[in-house]
Design goal:
Blueprint lengths: L6 H26 L14 H9 L6 E3 L5 H6 L4 H8 L33 H14 L6 E6 L6 H12 L4 E7 L2 E2 L2 E2 L12 H5 L2 E6 L3 H16 L5 E6 L17 H8 L3 H11 L5 H23 L21
Parallel strand pairs: 1-2, 2-3, 3-7, 6-7
Antiparallel strand pairs: 4-5
Length: about 325
């Protein structure tokens, strides 16, 4: 029995996707009621991309992320508690309360703090992969970015270098059709992003990003190739966000029929239906699982609300500067 058809593994994928959805929905209401500072960029509807990719990686592998990184963080093993502490600005947050929503990460768990600059994580991932290769380490890097990042020079420069040097990096494009509010076919003639890989001489593949097992299997193939020294690899994951670009975006630019079609392909609903057909869970089991996750989230919120906040003295910590030479 392979990992991808073991009941406990499959149910674990479902739990992690539900955890991401419940976290994002809960955080949305906390922001709307004014409980949290800052802003948010959420990933409801894209749970299968984060969980599918990260479940196929080893614990020692790394990921780089974006401003829409809550799902990536939870999928890579960060806890709801350390993330909520971060969102409330607490010292116990994953970035010490200094990063907030757009800079989630935990190096000990293999996630570089997320980078809010569009395409900013792509050259970083290539550099990390180069270090792994030079040091003959077995690790790989999975680099998440959106379809809008493909238009940035950083994407082309980093992908070209990775191809030239056969670096162990998986470039993971979460193609949700929109860069902010601009649809992909308004900014590129060839909208199949996986085709970009051929121009640089390596393999690319387009995957149904709302099918968590398809994403998992594709990532396993890509990871295996990278570990044998024949990387990089480009995965284009077709998905759709159920929310706006940021918290003040009402998504009026998304056609109603388009939204309806994609909502009917919801990754969690599809996976639940599959597990029910296979007899691994029933409706009551799904309800209990959602309730358990919601309970964990609510308990973590109460702790985060009263967690210790940074002091003025903390402004001088985690700051690096060159030593002044007389």
């Amino acid at each position: 029995m392979t990992r991808s058809n073991r009941p406990e593994f499959l149910l674990g994928l479902l739990e992690r996707m539900i955890e991401i959805r419940e976290f994002e929905d809960g955080v949305k209401f906390l922001f709307l009621e004014g409980s949290m500072p800052g802003t948010i960029h959420q990933c409801q509807g894209q749970e299968a991309t984060a969980v599918g990719v990260c479940s196929a990686l080893e614990s020692t592998d790394f990921i780089t992320s974006t401003f829409r990184g809550h799902g990536h963080a939870l999928a890579k093993g960060l806890s709801m508690q350390e993330m909520l502490d971060e969102l409330f600005g607490a010292k116990s947050g994953c970035a010490g309360g200094k990063g907030g929503s757009m800079h989630m990460g935990d190096m000990d768990k293999g996630m570089v703090p997320a980078i809010a600059i569009v395409a900013g994580g792509i050259p970083l991932a290539a550099g990390m992969a180069l270090s792994f290769k030079l040091e003959k380490k077995p690790q790989i890097v999975a680099c998440f970015f959106g379809d809008g990042a493909v238009a940035e020079g950083a994407f082309h420069e980093a992908v070209n270098m990775a191809a030239l040097w056969n670096l162990p990096v998986i470039f993971v494009c979460e193609n949700n059709l929109y860069g902010a509010s601009t649809r992909i076919d308004q900014v590129m003639r060839n909208t199949k992003i996986a085709d970009r890989a051929a121009a640089y001489g390596f393999e690319g593949e387009t995957i149904d990003g709302n099918d968590v097992l398809a994403v998992y299997e594709a990532t396993k193939r890509a990871a295996a190739q990278c570990r044998t020294g024949t990387g990089p690899y480009l995965l284009e994951l077709l998905t759709y966000r159920r929310t706006g670009h940021s918290r003040r975006d009402p998504t009026h630019y998304q056609p109603k029929d388009e939204k309806k079609a994609w909502f009917e392909r919801d990754p969690i609903d599809r996976f639940v239906a599959q597990l029910q057909r296979e007899g691994l869970i029933d409706a009551d089991g799904v309800t209990r699982l959602r309730a358990e996750v919601t309970k964990r989230f609510e308990a973590a919120v109460e702790i985060a609300k009263v967690a210790e906040q940074p002091t003025l003295a903390d402004l001088e910590t985690d700051v690096f500067a060159a030593k002044e030479v007389a």
